[in-house]
Amino acid sequence: MKSSTPLFLPASKALLKQARKLHQSGERKESGRFIAEGIKVVKELLASRLETVAVLGFEEELEELHELYPQGFYHTVNSKDLDYISGLKTPNKVAAVAVQPSPVPFTDLISESCLLLDHISDPGNMGTIIRTAEWFGVRNIICSFDSADCWSPKVVQSSMGSLFRSHLVYADLKEVVNSILLKGTLRLLGASLDGSKLTSDKSLPFALVIGSESHGISSELLEMLPEKVKIPGSPEAKTESLNAAVACGIILHSLAKK
Questions:
Q1: Residue 241 in this model has a pLDDT that exceeds 80
Q2: What is the value of pTM for the model shown?
């Protein structure tokens, strides 16, 4: 006899309230959780190593996800609920609450190619850089403390799942650079408009430093780098610099093994 017990239970008010509050940085920090929106991003989340606390969505989308990932905790919502918990103008049909991974010491991430992000404050750029880095095989990312919160909804959305497969920590980048210099096993270089033309060497692991569009790499950190590189532009170009995520992608294309 078929059970009359519903496959999914309606999301409680407490769960909806928790999901909504995760748009606030203080709540993410205190709870150690984050919110992900959109069926593609939630699929990537459920397939990752991260712990998913709850998936909230329309029943049709939940059935699709449950078929692929039956271990999840699924809760139905209506349009009003989605409007309430979403940070998007046009909410997606699915959202999820998940646990941020425990941070690891930055020393665990500098044994192979890595990115050092200095004051990347724009969440969209942060997410795009994480996604671009994964494309080129770089999953270790170390951010300055004043960079964007990688677990903010905008970063989660723009990374399109790459964040869930990356190892990302926040640290004092001067301390990180000192450790890399002491180890001497990575090619250490930074993107700078005053640098030399980039030379490609796909045989060496590297540590690439990317700074903000407005200020570049901080002066103290830049002085510590043994190699500064630039991306030559057209003589007719009027723009002052490239977007940080675009510059990162161009340099990684030259450095990373593919």
A1: no
A2: 0.92
